[in-house]
Task: structure prediction
Amino acid sequence: MKGGGKDMLIIPIKEGENIDRALKRFKRKFDRTGTMRQLRSRQQFTKPSVKKRTQIQKAQYIQHLRDQEDI
Result:
């Protein structure tokens, strides 16, 4: 198999547990792995300079929000 070779997500379902609750646990665990974010980012190539610029813009935006909160 090519790629990272990630393990499967295993969600043990307890006796009498609601399937919706188990599904919610699965979704939360899946989100934490970051698989979808990684797949979306790999769909197109982003130049390193553009990545750096977006990181800086994001940091400036967050800092601006924190500065407004202090006022």
